[in-house]
Amino acid sequence: MVLRSRASAVTGREALAAAPHGGAAVIAARHWRDVRPGDWPLAHFSPGEMASRGDGSLRLAVAAGERLDSLRRRLGKPLIVHSAYRDPAHNARVGGAPLSRHKAGDAFDIRAEGIRIPRKELLAAAVECGFTGLGLYRGFLHMDCRPQKARWTHGGRRVLELWT
Predict the structure, then answer these.
(1) CA Rg, the chain, in Å?
(2) Measured on CA atoms in the order 92, 96, 6, 27, is the torsion positive or negative?
(3) Phi, psi angles (nearest 5°) of residue 19
(4) In the chain, where are the structural domains located?
C-alpha cells in the first residue's frame, strides 16, 4: 500500500493510504480488489463490503471502520452493510445528499438480517462505539462520524416502531 497525501492522484490499480483532515488515516483504492489483505484493518468486514456499489472504488476512514468493527464485536451479531463508501456518480444515482458522509468514507447503512436487535440496544451500542450521526430508516440504520452529534428519522414514528 502506497502512502500519499490526500491531494495525490492514484494511478493504475494501486491502493493508497492517505492522511486527510487532522491526520486521520484513510484507505482508498480505485477498486476494492486492489487492497492487499495485509493492509486491511477490519476483522469483521471485507473491502468489498465497504466499496462503492457503483464503480467498486473504495474509501474508508480507518477510525470509522474500526468503530464499525467495534460495534459488531459489542453486539456479538452479524451486521449487513447495505451501503458504505459511495463514489460521486453512484451517490447521485441513489439520491444521496451532495455532502453525504458516504462520499467521505465514514458512513455506513447497516441492518441485522434475520436477527432482531432492540432499537435501544443498537442505538446505545452505536453511540458507545463513537458514532455521532445516527439516522433511522425503514429497515436500516445510518451511522456516521461527523464532527457534531446528529439524530434523525426518515418516515416518522412508523420507522421508529420497526426498530423496537
Answers:
(1) 16
(2) negative
(3) -125, 85
(4) 2-162
- The helix (run of H) or strand (run of E) holding residue 109 is strand 107-111
Residues paired with residue 144 on neighbouring β-strands, in sequence order: 107, 133
Amino acid of residue 81: V
Q: Which three cell numbers stand for residue 57?
A: 472504488
The verdict on pTM exceeding 0.85 is no
- C-alpha distance from residue 88 to each of 29, 44, 109, 115 (Å): 14, 26, 17, 32
Say which amino acid occupies 153: T
Topology classification of domain 2-162: Muramoyl-pentapeptide Carboxypeptidase; domain 2 (3.30.1380)
50: left (phi over 0), alpha (psi -120 to 50) or beta: alpha
Strands 2-4 and 15-18: parallel
- Residue 22 clears pLDDT 70, i.e. is over it: no
Q: What is the pLDDT of residue 161?
A: 54
